[in-house]
């Protein structure tokens, strides 16, 4: 009894100052929010199906063992996946569209959609909580400013995963388009040397692992699908859907027409390579033609003012001096 009384007296003595009271209130608020978040996470994980969580854990372990993921990614999926499942839209169109966009970005994991929504939830909730715990208790702000400091990070956290997804798709599309001409040239050489389409694609995938790893990964997956028993047409269609690149879609369509009509694959690849080079040349000429128009605005607002100052400055100063002397 004496020990508890002495402890309470010491605590009350420490909290006599206003700053100490404010610090203690912030600490208690932080502990309450942390306990609430832990309770919500445990509740969501408890509401999810245990069998499904076990299967996802085994899938994540298999990805880590196969070298397609990391150990921290499996833990991230285990924590954020169940939370993201509750936010996945019920409409099949929206769900399939998000899954397709994630595949275009190179995220082919079965739990990619739930992880995407889980990360969106995390970025929407955590920044406002940090602002609430670290800024608002220690800085006196007007109520409207405090509300804006809570709303703006939540909106940015909600939109940030979407911006990242669009940028990842754009960067991966550029990498795939950049490596396609080299792959076509190697495919033409391998086809004219007598290799079949599957063997030629596997050989090209091995040769492009260093220079174009994204395209080599897609071609390796094509080879794995054909070795697993999938026919070339279905594997080509899946390659077209996975990448979402217009040039690869044209290549797949050309190869499927060549298989359908029985023409030479080597000749088809050579003709498509010539067409692709012509298309790239036209795109380069189009960009070069736009340079003069794009340079007009920097020229007017940046170069011309300095040129006028250098060219007309001395005469104006001389005229001003002459007028002043007169």
UniProtKB/TrEMBL annotation:
Show where the Type II secretion system protein GspF domain sits. Answer: 184-312
Query: Keywords of this protein's UniProt record, alphabetized?
Result: Cell membrane, Membrane, Transmembrane, Transmembrane helix
Q: Which domain of life is it from?
A: Bacteria
Identify the stretch annotated as signal peptide in this record: none
Q: Where in the cell is it found?
A: Cell membrane
Q: Which residues cross the membrane?
A: 20-47, 117-139, 145-165, 296-324
Membrane topology qualifier: Multi-pass membrane protein
Pfam family membership, one? T2SSF
What broad class describes the main subcellular location of this protein?
A: membrane
PANTHER family (alphabetical): INTEGRAL MEMBRANE PROTEIN-RELATED, PILUS ASSEMBLE PROTEIN
Q: What is this protein called?
A: Type II secretion system F family protein
Q: Origin organism of this chain?
A: Billgrantia aerodenitrificans
Q: What is the lineage of its organism?
A: Bacteria, Pseudomonadati, Pseudomonadota, Gammaproteobacteria, Oceanospirillales
